[in-house]
Protein 1
Amino acid sequence: MFETSAMKELHRIQEEIYEETKDMTPEELIRYFEETAKKVERELEELKKKKKKEIIQ
């Protein structure tokens, strides 16, 4: 099967997450994903602010 670079990147990320979380308890796993989601949310907000500044200028 042909694997695009995007698919390779996705598989790499999945492996990375697995390695980080494989020994976690269910509670730790929930906390991990909650913290990761909050981090992504903050990063998206920063990108929105940056984009607005670029549009205004």
Protein 2
Amino acid sequence: MKNANIFVDVDLTLVDSNGRLLDGAGDALRRLRASGSHLFLWSSVGADYARQVAGLHGLTDLFEGFSAKPDIVIDDMPSTARPAFEYNVHEEASWPALAEKILTKHIDAR
């Protein structure tokens, strides 16, 4: 899958409970972006908050869009609205390890 659309949550995924960027997250996102992937940042707090957090960490340019977490999705094929792959950053060894897994398993960047 080339040019994957990757949606990243803000709180406790990109940043910790104190708003600090999780170790390796910035570099991992840069690798994914460099592969041709399209990155989007979302938050249950809203799009403006997602954009603000990205800006605080110098990551705004990595993301093509910012959005609120969807509560309801309307689609002619609802089963396609669910992502094909989901990852929990806390179940991986690190953000860089997660980026490597995504690049290796899903993106033809090699």
Protein 3
Amino acid sequence: MTIAIGFNLVRPATGLYVQGMIALGEGTPLFSATLLAKLRPENSTGLGSTSVQGNVLTTRSGPESVLSAVNTYLTDKLTGDELKIILNNRDKFEFAIGVGDRRSGVVSRFVIASNWHGEDVNNLLLLPNPPNAPEYDFRLTFSADTGTLTLTDNHVLVPNTYGGMRYLTVRVKP
């Protein structure tokens, strides 16, 4: 319905304002302030780096829950419904994964993958390899439909023994 004031047509409102919600624009989903707060850097915990082991999820041949993996690195955990919102609107969010050696003596063998940001993949070779380290051959399978991911490694030809996920974040795209 179009409303006229004098000879000027007034565009009908296409958005909806709800207390406690943030609208990103016309026709885009609304994300709750609670969800956005959970994705802020200050809610992250246990993120690894080249100097800190952080929380480690070991590589394995079978899938694990994306929700469980993401929540490993959050203080205030996501709910299943919040993760569904993220996975159904991945064009608005960006994932980052950091992988490296799970042994505490070689913490410096760590890297944030540059070739994956949350899209569905099957056996994707994560790049780059951790610097100054033999090839780890980190492979990622990620499915939003099933809500699962699988991370494997084949470091020194010994499958799923030395590698691990040491960093996983989800952020709202700028």
